[in-house]
Amino acid sequence: MLKRILISLFVFSLAFATTASASAQDLPYYFQVEKQAVNVYWNSDGSMSLDYRWTFINQPNAHEIDFVDVGMPNYNFDISAVKADVDGAPVKVSTSDYQGSGSGFAVVMGSKSIPAGGKATVHVYVGKITGILYPDDEDEAYASAVFAPTYFGSQYVTGKTDFTLIYHLPPGIKPEEPKWHPAPSGFSSEPTAAYDDQNRVTYTWRNASASASDYYLFGASFPRAYVPAETIQAKPVEPLIDEDAVFAICCGGFFAFMFIGMPIISAIQGRKRKMQYLPPKVSIEGHGIKRGLTAVESAILMEQPLDKVLTMILFGVVKKGAAKVVSRDPLKLEIASPLPENLHEYEKDFLAAFKETDARARSRAIQDMMVKFVKSVSAKMKGFSRKETVAYYKSIMERAWQQIEAADTPEVKSQKFEEALEWTMLDKDYDDRTRRTFSGPIFMPVWWGSYDPAYRPAPAASSSTPSPFPTNQPTSTSRGSLPGAEFAAQMVTGVQTFSQKTIGNISDFTEKITGKTNPPPKVSSSGRSGGRSGGGCACACACAGCACACAGGGR
Amino acid sequence: MSLFGEWFNRKSSIANPKSGLYHYLREDEFQKSRIHLRIDPDGAGTLIVNASSVMHLNPTAALMAYLILEETEEPQAIKIIQQKFNVGKTQAAKDLSEFRIQISELLNPDSCLIHDLELETIMPFSSRPSAPYRMDLAVTYRCNNDCAHCYNARERNYPELKTDQWKKILDKLWELGVPHIVFTGGEATLRNDLPELIRHAEANGQITGLNTNARRLSDMNYVQSLVEAGLDHVQITLESCAPEIHDEMMRTGGAFKQTVAGLKNVLATKLYVMTNTTMLKMNVHAIPDTLDFLADIGVPTVGLNALIYSGQGLTVGTGLHESELQPILDMATKKTAARGQKLIWYTPTQYCEFDPTASNLGVKGCTAALYSMCAEPNGDVIPCQSYYRALGNLLTDSWDSIWNHPLSVQLRERQKLPEKCRDCSLLPECGGGCPLKFESSHVPSRL
Predict the structure, then answer these.
(1) What is the pLDDT of residue A516?
(2) Which residues are bridge partners to B343 per DSSP?
(3) Residue ranges per structural domain of chain A
(4) Among the residues of A290-340, which ranges form H helices?
(5) Architecture of the structural domain at A28-231
(6) pLDDT digits (tens, 9 = 90+) for B57-75
(7) Which partner from A101, A243, B88, B206 sits 20 to 30 angstroms from B342, CA to CA?
(8) Which residues, including other chains, have CB under 8 Å from residue B204's CB and lie 6 or more apart?
């Protein structure tokens, strides 16, 4: 039978582990822990590394300290990554020599056993322990890192211990982010915050007159974002203590804990092996918001109907003086030459398509242009979060509306409206909101005549732009006005022009595009998630933003 | 530490999967998917499709993915889910049904990007796997070219492992959960056992690739032997469409002719083919023509990279400054898009000098000792193909000592970055650029 120190090393990290072993020898174990230094590294991968350093002063006539059992919080550690030494001389660690209960290992002191009256420092490093973080009860955005270091049976310990415990928080955490939990009795209420040599924030608790036989619980919380989400354990539904551990604790003299814990443990046996259920979640690495998209590109991302997207492009080229509508039915454009320099690729492609005189060839060209455009938005979005990006551009749209609605006079209101026209068009409630916002007249943009042949403003005699058509540049041209409701109706008419006169059946048109940007799965499944709506139209994902083209107005 | 003690697909008794790597092949007349599901001891998982799309699964998703991939009947799957989780039958059935649809989209190699984008996103390079997703095996440092800018810092006669030792390493990597193997060098085709090693890796379930100068691929019979061994992809270095420039950079007369012949040979096979061109002062003026040339002969994917500051690259003096890259890459982006090609930009740069995301080239950062590593001809592991500091040997050292070597941790956790990077908001994506560059005291600020 192994002779070994009767040291019970209890290590807690919410859940526990323990060790205790009894000596059969006559001599008692009796020692002082002169100094105990514990470094607890909370790593960015959600694991914990432990570094213990005990300075033992073995008492005269006491049993030599020949084994030290070290309990571990759980089984998620690799014994090959555990290193130990006594005064710098490596010693073995072994799980097979471990005689405690639950998970743990033994430090096999061997020739470095500390004799009666001797003094030595035992150092243990545990490289990686996983499954030790839990949600913070008070803040769901935080992870809780709680740890109670080793303590010893009071009958074996004498004297005071200079006890230091240092938390090394995950890399990248800023000093203002973490929170410490209440300190144990005898330690200052606030730990000392500092940086370690890896620039990690540290919390240091110290008590120069601590007891090596007292149980101290330390804790801190930090934002969950600094560790992988999956490493944060579900809240334990029961005390994470097994029967063996309870027995060991009992032997260690913690009867009060035992009596409190036992009935609870009995009650939860039936379900203790089941994990808390969370819905399935898949995540990928990527950016958040893709900034710098145009309103038209945002429309693709927001799954706006393709005829509306085309109308937005038309507005864009007209505003820039690159084209003028000479006929709404059928839609015919007069294209500027040379083209302004500030056109986007999709605008150039759009104009190129309208150079086609044959209706079928033009429709095909518009299809090709849209396929290319959708793919380009897709490429731009590669690695970015669509959800966050859509929310961002919706907020831009909303801010645009708020500026318009807050304007004092019809002139200012119209000016703001003109400036942000494309962004407001992203609103699915665009028509109604335009009517509501403009109870009075809307002063038409100077370029409106280039869009609506029926609208006849005064000629732009003093325009400074080289464009042959009126643009949104300031001019001295007097501006006509329309009632808001009529203007909104004009916009709807514009969209319908595309829908009905230029590209034909919008569902067919959309299918031709999505067939290239996002071919449907070859094997049909029971249904696609997302609940696409639209009155049974052939709304299909166009990728980069599932350009939903229901003639009825999208989803 | 080997987290994965037990592996392989065990169809005989479907139950809670043990931690390990599971490989699935989905193939029909239209498409092929190689799927790897890595399940960690804590139940969480990583789903890797065709060695390119990496998705992280919480324990519920990992179990459901496993059951779906194992084609477990729904009633049994629900029973298994209920055995593991505290969940009602109705909830489990509903979530499984919805997840089945989601995963079928994710597993489709032609899947709409939007589905990826709908997923929860986590910061780039924030995952902390227990082993890389890709291991480059530099099976030899011998080479039949002699590039002046070569990043190789070892002797050409560096000791090499025998075939059986490499097989042992392949097996160990599979046990560690590494699904993707790239054979490189030196020039990997100079090892006559290359087809045998490819065959062994493929038998494990690993996806295999080859980085080569393609001179030996000018022999179609040899190409066929690689294809028959199961090779999945090949990357060929072509420095210019101008033979004289290519041969001058390779310092080998006639290399261009053989390389292009090899390139055309592999293009005639089912292999996934891409090229790589290092943009240097010597060839940068010919990049537009080179891109046209590659498009003309049907190369579907074109890679570009900058000088690697290692080996002879440290002193060659032909590198471009990062701030010079933007117009070249913008041109390359337009050209490749116009020809329907895919452009891949490899080099991690400091985003304050060159931001690849601004040019829609994607997030590029150093993944050494994180998502990829390299084994040298003697089995030593180095952080990447160009970072010649051994972390341990795959045959003799524990994986834990390699993976958690101080240098591995330093690179993974982006420690010891340049001072200017400390408070930079771009740091999470940029990572300070290539460590070889900012660690090298030999590299002037402007070449």
Answers:
(1) 61
(2) B302
(3) 28-231, 295-457+469-517
(4) 295-301, 306-319
(5) Sandwich (2.60)
(6) 998 999 999 999 999 999 9
(7) B206
(8) B170, B171, B174
Q: Helix or strand or coil: residue A267?
A: helix
pLDDT in tens, B325-351: 888 999 999 899 889 898 988 888 888
Q: Tell me how close the Cα of A518 comes to any Cα of chain B, in angstroms.
A: 6
Residue of B39, B57, B116, B117 for testing the chain A interface, max A β-carbons within 10 Å: B117
d(CA A50, CA B29): 54
Chain B contact set for A82 (CB, 8 A): none
A81, A271, A280 member nearest B58 (Cβ): A280
Residue B363's closest chain A neighbor by CA? A383
Neighbour count for residue A433 (Cβ, 10 Å): 17
Give the integer Cα–Cα distance in Å for A341 and B333: 20
Q: Determine the distance in angstroms separating the CA of A307 from the nearest CA of chain B, rounded to an integer.
A: 21
Which residues make Cβ contacts (< 8 Å) with residue B355, sequence separation at least 6? B349, B426, B430
Contacts of B256 (CB under 8 A, 6+ apart): B240, B243, B246, B247, B250
Residues of A in contact with B104 (CB under 8 A): 521, 525
Length of chain B in terms of residues written: 447
State how far the Cα of A125 lies from the Cα of B83, in Å rounded to an integer: 36
Q: Which of B42, B86, B114, B120 to mutate to test the interface with A (most CBs of A within 10 A)?
A: B114
Distances (CA, A) of A88 to A83, A104, A116, A121: 11, 22, 20, 8
CA atoms of A74 and A548, how far apart (whole Å): 51
User: What's the CA gap between A533 and A301, in Å, rounded?
Assistant: 17
Residue A88 burial (CB < 10 Å; 0-12/13-18/19+)? exposed
Structure tokens at A170: 């995950």
Non-local (6+) Cβ contacts of A90 within 8 A are A83, A84
Question: Which of A81, A130, A528 is the closest to B400 by Cβ?
Answer: A81
Flag the least confident range among A85-99, A481-495, B264-278, B432-446: B432-446
Q: What is the ipTM of this complex?
A: 0.84
Which tokens sit at B338? 């116009």
pTM above 0.80, yes or no: no
